[in-house]
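Protocol step 4 of 5: obtain the predicted structure for the target chain.
Materials: sequence only (see below). No template structures provided, no constraints applied. The aim of this step is simply to have a reference model before the mutagenesis design in step 5. Sequence pasted as it appears in the construct record:
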Amino acid sequence: MRWMVRGDVDGFFGLALDNLVQLILIDGLCRFVLGFPPELVYGRILPGVAVSLLLGNGYYAWQARRVARAEGRDDVCALPYGINTPSLFAYVFLVMLPAKLAAEAAGAEDPSRVAWQAGLVACLGSGLIEGGGAFVAERLRRWAPRAALLSTLAGIAITFIALGFLFRTYARPVVGFATLGIVLLTYFGRVKFRWGLPGGLVAVVVGVVLARVMGYAPVGEAPEGAVSLHLPVLALGELAEGVSGGLLLTYLAVILPMGLFNLVGSLQNIESAEAAGDRFPTAPSLAVNGGGTIAAALFGSCFPTTIYIGHPGWKGMGARAGYSVLNGAFFTVVCLTGLMAHVVHQVPVDAGMAIVLWIGIVITAQAFSATPRAHAPAVVVGLLPGIAAWGALLVKTSLQVAGYGQPGGPEFGPELLEAFQARDQWLHGMFALESGFIFTAMILSAITVGIIERRFLRAAAWSLAAAVVSSTGLMHGYAFTAGDVVLDVAWRAPWANPWATGYLVLAGILLAAPVITRRDDAAAH
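Step 4 output (C-alpha cells):
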C-alpha cells in the first residue's frame, strides 16, 4: 500500500477540519475563559498538542501499512486520531476553571499557572487510565455485541456531528447546499471530478470562495504578530508541583470518568473500523492512544487525545495511511509556529462542514448495515441515550443564553425539573440519561441483543453491570451547579439509588424469564 493516494487528500481535509475546530476551542477557551496569557497558549500548550498529534497520527499511519502488508491489501485506512472534545470541555470547566478560582480566592500569586498545572495533572491521569485499560479492553470487546458498540457511536454521530452541522448548513444555505451537494455527489453518487480533482478539495475550495462572496470570510480580525517557532518544552516540574499540591485527588472525580469514557469510546471506534473491513489489534491501538495523551501532558498540553469517530467515512473517501501523515504534519507546523490564527482567519468552518456532516451520516448508517438485521431494534435503543444527551445540551445552552448561571441571574436547580415537568417535559430523566450516556447506550443495546437472541442470562448480567456502574454515579448521577448540570461521581448503595434498583429489578425479570415465559415464534410474524 502506497503512503499517499488521492483519497488521502479528501480524508485530510475532513480530519483536519475536525482537529482545527478543537484547536479553535482550545485557543478561545484558554485565552478568554481561563484568561491564560498568549505566551502560555502558543508557547507551551499548543506545542504539547503538536507532540501528541504527531505521535498518534504517525503510529496509526504506520499501523495501517503494517496491517495492509500482513493481509496483502492496499485499501486499509488508518484509525483517525485527534483531540478529545468532551475532555476538552470537561477539563476547562470542571478542572482548570475551578482550580483558577480557588487559587484566586486563596490569594495565589499566579492563578493561571495553578489552573494550567491542574489541567496537566488531569490530562496525565486520563492517559494513564486509557493506557492501562488497553490491556483489558479486548475482553469487553469480545463480550459486547457489535450493535452495542456501534449504536453508541451512531447516537453521537447523528446528533453532535450530523445535526449540528446540518443546522449550520441551513443557516448558511448558499455555502452549505453547494458544498453538501459536491460531497454527496462524490461519495454517494460514486463519481469523480475531471482532471483528477478530489471531491473534498473541490468542496473546501468552493466553500471558501462562496464564504468570501457571502461575507463569512475572512473570519474576525486579521491576527497580529509574525509567525515564529515555539518548540515543545517538557513540563515535568509543573506536573510534579500539581501532583504534590493535591490537584490529582481534588479532581479525581472528573479525571476518572473522563478517562473511562475515552477508553470505551476509543474501543467502540476500533470496532467500527473492523466493521468497515479493517481489523486493528486492540491493546496496542489503545495503548498508543493513552501514550499520546501522556505525551501531551508531559509537554504542556492539558487536552487528551483519542481515536476518532468516523473511520468508515474516511475509508469511504478512499483515505489510507497518508491522510494521517498529512494531519500530523500539518498540525505540527500550525501548533509550533502560531500559524493557526492565520488559518482560522482565512478558512471558515463552513467551507468544510459538509465533509463532517457526511461522516456523521456514514457512521449512523454503519450501525445498521454492519450488524445482524435482527439486531436493528438494539441499534435503535442504543441511539436513544446519545440523542437524549444532545437534547440536554440544547436545553442547558438555552437556559444559559436566557441568563441562567450569569452574575445576578437565576441559577440551575431542582426547581427547573418541576417547571419543565408541569409541561410534560421530563428533564430529570434527560439529565440522568446524559450522565454517562456512552455507558448507558452500550449496556441498553447489549441487554436488547441478549433478549432478541433469548440469551436471558447474558442480558441479566449486563443489567447487573448497569446497577453496579449506576451505584458509582458514572451512569445517571448528576448534580446542579450555578450554571450547569454536571456528572456527580459518588458511591450510593443500590437501595438508595433508584436507577441501580431499577436495573436490579430488570435483572431479576430477565433471570426469571426462562421460567415465567415460553417461546412464541409466531409473534415475530
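Step 4 remarks: The chain has two domains: 6-369, 378-400+413-511. The chain has 22 helices and four strands.
Proceed to step 5.
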